[in-house]
Amino acid sequence: MAQEFIGAGLAFPLHTDASGDIALVSRERKVEESIRLILGTAYGERPMRPEFGCGIHDFVFAPADHTTMGRIGHEVRASLRRWEPRVDVHEVDVSVDDVDTSTLYIDIRYTIRGDNDPRNLVFPFYVIPSHE
After folding, report:
1. d(C-alpha 80, C-alpha 59), whole Å
2. Helices marked H in the chain
3. Separation CA 67–CA 63 (nearest Å)
4. 10, 20, 64, 85: which one has the fewest Cβ atoms less than 10 Å from its Cβ?
5. Number of H helices, E strands in the chain
6. Which CATH architecture has domain 2-126?
7. Could you list the pLDDT tens digit for every one of the 132 residues in the chain?
8. Which contiguous run of DSSP H or E holds residue 27?
9. What are 53-77's pLDDT values in tens digits?
10. Residue 121 CB-density burial (10 A; 0-12 exposed, 13-18 middle, 19+ buried)
11. Which of 48, 70, 45, 66 is CA-nearest to residue 57?
């Protein structure tokens, strides 16, 4: 039942498979690609659907501190709630890389609706550090 709900579609980014046909994805991979697409798209980036995407791109020049991480977590939850109805998001943790403070990791813990298999996806996000 859950697999029928997820569906199948074109791989993103668009590419060909080993046989030269357009690559398709289905099941859990389709949902993961959808989440990455939502988070990787800034508001206004799609001319025919300017409200699609996620507001994390507004934080590229923000300091990598707890306030920014909390706001990014909020944006991720809101965007996934709106644009990916096939998942239940349980937790979003944002952390700073120990070595490179311009790299934030957005760790999303979710389940696909109708499935009891917990999943997680880590999405790297890069900020431009201030040079003070």
Report:
1. 18
2. 2-6, 27-40, 66-83
3. 9
4. 20
5. 3, 5
6. Roll (3.10)
7. 444 555 667 666 667 778 887 777 667 888 898 999 999 999 999 999 999 999 999 999 998 899 999 999 999 999 999 999 999 999 999 999 999 989 999 999 999 988 888 999 999 999 987 655
8. helix 27-40
9. 999 999 999 988 999 999 999 999 9
10. middle
11. 45
Burial of 117 (0-12, 13-18, 19+ CB in 10 A): exposed
Query: Token match 């239940």: residue?
Result: 88
* pTM assigned to the model: 0.82
| pLDDT value of position 1 | 44
Evaluate the omega torsion of the peptide bond into residue 13 and state whether it is cis, within 30 degrees of 0.
yes
Terminal-to-terminal C-alpha distance of the chain: 55
Amino acid identity at 106: I
Q: How far apart are CA 108 and CA 99, in angstroms?
A: 21
Token pair recorded at residue 98: 């120990």
Tokens 């949902």, residue? Answer: 31
